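Hey L., structure's done. Input below.
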Amino acid sequence: MTDKATPLIKRTPSSKQFATEIEQLLASANKKTGTKNSRRLKLILHVGTPKTGTTSVQVYLDKKQRKLRSKGILYPNRFHNPNAPKHQWFERNLVTANAESLVDNFSDILNHVEEHTHTILLSSEGIYNNWWDFPQESKALLLELKGLFDVEIWVWFKEPLVFAESFYKQCLRNPQVDHIHCYGKDLSFSEVLDDPWFSQHLDYIGFVNECDELFGKASVKLFECDKDTVATVSHLLGLSTPNDNPTPRKNNCMNLVTSELYRVINRLPLSAKEKENLVPHLNALDATLTPYSDNGDRENSTLIDDESKYKINKMTAEGMQEIQKRFTS
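Output:
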C-alpha cells in the first residue's frame, strides 16, 4: 500500500539533547540501586493495533503490577486516567514533539526502577493510531531510545476487513475533533474509507517497515490477533501458571442498528460531554437489540459494501502476506 519511500530518520540537536538527559537519568537510577552502568534496560512498547484486546491487556497488567515487579518488570503506574491504565502520555508527547515532557515522564519511571528491574513495559494503542501524526523530530526521539534501551515493539494485527469495520464503528462513537475529519460524523463506511487519515491505518506494512528502520527488524515482534491476547502477553512475560487463567474484558462490536443510531446522533450539534452521556444508554440498547439486529448473527454481519471490500483487499493483500510470514507463534 505504501507508495513512497520512508524518509531516512536522522539524529537532530534536539534529539541528542534528549538522549543526554535520559542517559543521565539512567546513570542516576543505576547509582541509586547500586547497579553497574553497563546494565541496559529492556523497553517494551505494546503499540496496539486498536481493537485487538489492548484494553484487556492494560487492565490485566495493571492488576498484576506486584507480580510483574517481582519478576523484574515495571509496568509504570503513570496514567492520565486511572480507569484506563495505559500510557497515553507517550504518544501525546510524540505528536507534539515535546521532548521535555517525555524526559519528565521517563524521570518519574526511572525513579521506580529497582535493583532487579530489567524491563519497562509501556502500553497504548494510540502509538499505532497516531503513528502517522508523529513528526520526523519525534521519530528521531524514538531513534535515541533505541540507543539507550533494548527496545522491543509488540504489535497485534487483525485481518484488515475486520479491523476496518471495528475502526469505523469506533470513529462513529468518537466525538468530533478538528484535525480528524471522520470522527463523530454521519458517514457511511465507503465515505470513511475514502478519508486518507482512516485508510492510512490499513497500511500495516508501512508501519512495520518504519519500525524495522527505527528499531531493527529483530526488535519488531508481530502477532496475529486470532487468539486470546491477554493469555499471549501473560505467557510472554512469564506470568502464566496452572492456576492463572486471565479473563479478558470482552469488547463486543456494536450491531448494525446501533451503528445507524450513532449516525443519526452524529447529525446533531451535541457537545463531546453530551455524546459521552448517551454512550451507556446506547450500549444498553445495543445489548437489547442484538438478537433482532443482523438477523441475530453479529459475527457474520457487516457494514462493508462489496466495492469497499475489494479496495481493502487490493491495498492490503501484498503487505499482509509479508506480515503473516513474521507472525510470532
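Strands lie at 42-46, 73-74, 119-123, 150-157, 220-224. The CA atoms of residues 53 and 229 lie 6 Å apart.

-- N.
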